[in-house]
Specification:
This protein is of the alpha+beta class and 283 residues long. Helices cover 36% and strands 17% of the residues. The protein has helices spanning 14-25, 69-72, 109-117, 121-145, 152-160, 163-173, 176-183, 187-195, 208-221, and strands spanning 7-10, 30-34, 45-46, 55-56, 85-87, 91-96, 102-106, 225-228, 251-259, 272-280. A four-stranded mixed sheet has the order 1-2-9-10, covered by helices on one side. The chain has a two-stranded antiparallel sheet with strand order 3-4. Strands 5-8 form a two-stranded antiparallel sheet. It binds flavin-adenine dinucleotide. Flavin-adenine dinucleotide binds at residues 10-16, 33-36, 41-43, 58-62, 246-247.
Length: 283
């Protein structure tokens, strides 16, 4: 028997799942169709090497997300109701150099400055000033990150009108390396600064802003290492499994679908998911 939904989301990665939950909370019925045998996408934990050793596939730390109202205000009750927990170790990152020296970045800004001072007093002071400068704009930037952006031309018009806006536009256009070099002089500090941040080529123009925001944001909101996964809502009644022909290939396969419960008691809960095994024919 076929069932219709208000929304069908292709792909059960965290973005699809979070969007599904918000839609469910808004009263929509949602079906998430996932081609793999497990939902989660890049945020899955899997035994990729030796049995018993579990790895984060593509999700070591949920850093930028810590500033998102999803977590800050626990809008989907992932923490309060579903057991999501984050740990924020004092030591955020550390770099080991060939000569045996190390440079540690702590959640605490002053401790980080002390660690940098081992290599350069001037860079320690620069790091302090850099962070305080970004802190002044951080609330505005966070608001911009998690709201619908204005058009590029409108955004440029607004930013052009203030010195802060002009400086941000300059940062956006630069490479992380050029920006780092404006602030820091010691090679180890410069290397550590970019190696510990975005997984992008720091010499590419346009990477400056990633550098600009990530460490100040980590000092303010923490690293965000997930401690345990959220469990499915035990009060939800899963919808009846439906036959899946989600992906266009032949053979018998197992497909998972994530169904939002239609009951209003679960409107604010993540959808529950069920497994269906189906025989799919070619095409
Ligand atoms: C090596 C690596 C490390 C990373 N580390 C971090 C980190 O530490 N912290 C961090 O915040 N981010 C990290 N990221 C980025 C993060 O993993 C991604 O931003 C995130 O997984 C994107 O989520 P998503 O839901 O958009 O897509 P995905 O997680 O890719 O999920 C997409 C889902 O859609 C499914 N799908 C695709 N096509 C179809 C289809 N046609 N039909 C049905 N299902 C389909 C896929 O199977 C998958 O489950 C890392 C990325 C990489 C590559």
């Amino acid at each position: 028997m076929s069932k219709t939904y208000d929304i069908v989301i292709a792909g059960g990665g965290h973005n699809g799942l979070v969007a599904a939950c918000y839609l469910a909370k808004a009263g929509q019925s949602v079906c998430v169709v996932e081609k793999n045998d497990k939902v989660g996408g890049g945020v899955m934990t899997r035994e990729l090497t030796v049995p018993g050793f579990k790895h984060d596939v593509c999700s070591v730390a949920h850093t930028l997300l810590q500033a998102n109202p999803l977590l800050r205000n626990d809008e989907l009750e992932l923490k309060a109701k579903f057991g999501l927990k984050y740990i924020n170790p004092d030591k955020m990152t550390a770099i080991f150099y060939d000569d045996g020296s190390t440079l540690e970045f702590y959640t605490d800004l002053e401790r980080t400055c002390q660690a940098i001072a081992k290599f350069s007093e001037r860079d320690a002071e620069a790091y302090r000033r850099f962070n305080h400068q970004v802190f002044q704009n951080l609330d505005m930037l966070v608001m911009g990150m998690f709201n619908t952006p204005p058009s590029a031309s409108h955004q440029a018009l607004i930013m052009e009108q203030s010195q802060v806006g002009q400086e941000l536009m300059r940062t956006q256009a630069m490479s992380a390396w050029d920006y780092i070099s404006e602030w820091f002089e010691n090679d180890k500090v410069k290397i550590a600064r970019y190696a510990s941040e975005a997984m992008m080529n720091p010499f590419d123009n346009g990477t400056g802003f990633g550098f600009y925001i990530i460490l100040p944001l980590m000092h303010r909101y923490g690293v965000g290492i997930a401690r345990r996964k959220a469990s499915a809502c035990s009060t939800c009644t899963p919808s009846a499994p439906t036959t899946s022909r989600a992906a266009p290939s032949a053979g018998t396969r197992s497909a998972k679908r994530w169904h939002t419960p239609s009951s209003t008691t679960c409107a604010s809960s993540p959808p529950t998911w069920t497994t269906t095994t189906s025989s799919a024919s070619p095409g």
